[in-house]
Protein: Regulatory protein VirG
Organism: Rhodospirillum centenum
Amino acid sequence: MTESLHLLIVDDDREIRDLLTRYLARHGYRVTAAKDGQEMRRYLADRNIDLVVLDLMLPGEDGLSLCRAIRADGGPPVVMLSAMGEDADRILGLEIGADDYLPKPFNPRELVARIKAVLRRVQTPGATPVNGAGALAFCGYVLDQAQRRLTDPQGAEVTLTAGEYELLVALATRPRRVLSRDDLLEITRGRSAGPFDRSIDVQISRLRRKIEPDPADPAIIKTVRSGGYIFSPEVTQQ
């Protein structure tokens, strides 16, 4: 299953690069390692990369800037690593488009699990749509699950990260139903929320900025006090 998947490790610590390269290769992945942003950009331009494992603290251009550039270019999903384990750093990484975040030091087995979870969410066009559904329409938007794309009322594509897409599918396929943070994490990642896990809140905020007419007064994804979130519009299948 993983033999054709190509990972790019970006870390300035040679020991970590070598360790992750060997460990991930043993799990069947093809692995390329880069020591900085310059090498990362070259490999992304020259090779077909399925996922980037990106260190936050890099010499020169840091991981946040590089992650933002990957997102702007429509690049592969990103799992961010950082020795800075504070919530603020994790939230900032997720805000600028990382698909998951893992603080150092970490167990390599957990990194593999996170990589697999992110890659499961990134299906190729033509894969079986979620819940057997095709395209879902709401508020003029069309969410095409077969092509994994969202178009706005004017027909323009809305750029979503893998995490944002999975979260939108989870909400749109369960309209007018209150979903807690734990529910959404279980649906999208197959795991329960930790006591301080705010990643769903971050992704909800990002989604609102992309699809709400007024993100400060959301009408599509509403907050339910002490409950979670509810996808309020009518959803029709096309």
Summary: The domain at 130-237 is CATH 1.10.10.10 (Arc Repressor Mutant, subunit A). Residues 124-132 have pLDDT under 50 and may be disordered.
